[in-house]
Write a structure and sequence with these properties.
Blueprint (H helix, E strand, L loop, with lengths): L1 E5 L2 E4 L4 E8 L5 E7 L6 E6 L6 E3 L7 E6 L4 E6 L8 E8 L10 E2 L3 E6 L1
Parallel strand pairs: 2-11
Antiparallel strand pairs: 1-3, 3-8, 4-5, 4-9, 5-6, 7-8, 9-10, 9-11
Length: 118
């Protein structure tokens, strides 16, 4: 099983990026995105259920980020709009085989760097 994240890059404040994370090997009940800024602990960003009807966001990204998934492609996305310098971090996708969680996941992607310049 692998999770391959992509889509990171350098963007100016106010810009947008779309992260993707493609899973191989199996399907997953729940996907999430986390991020880790330099010298900070990893933090939860967003989570989405199998059907896509249930989502939860960390407070600072509400209204700016949107998580979605395409089960046929085994891919989860994170659309990030109105980016701020404080969004700069390595973003990780995570997948859970069964159940729902904002903390405990079975598989993790390798991370993709997002840098927002002011």
């Amino acid at each position: 099983v692998q999770l391959q994240a992509s889509g990171g890059g350098l963007v100016q404040a106010g810009g947008s990026l779309r992260l993707s994370c493609a899973a191989s090997g199996r399907t997953f009940s729940t996907y999430a995105w986390f991020r880790q800024a330099p010298e900070k602990e990893r933090e939860f960003v967003a989570v989405i259920s199998w059907s896509g009807t249930r989502t939860v966001y960390e407070d600072s990204v509400k209204g700016r980020f949107t998580i979605s998934r395409d089960n046929a492609k085994k891919t989860v996305y994170l659309q990030m709009n109105s980016l701020k310098p404080e969004d700069t971090a390595v973003y990780y996708c995570a997948a859970k085989v069964a159940g729902w969680s904002t903390t405990n996941y079975d598989y993790w992607g390798q991370g993709t760097q997002v840098t927002v310049s002011s």
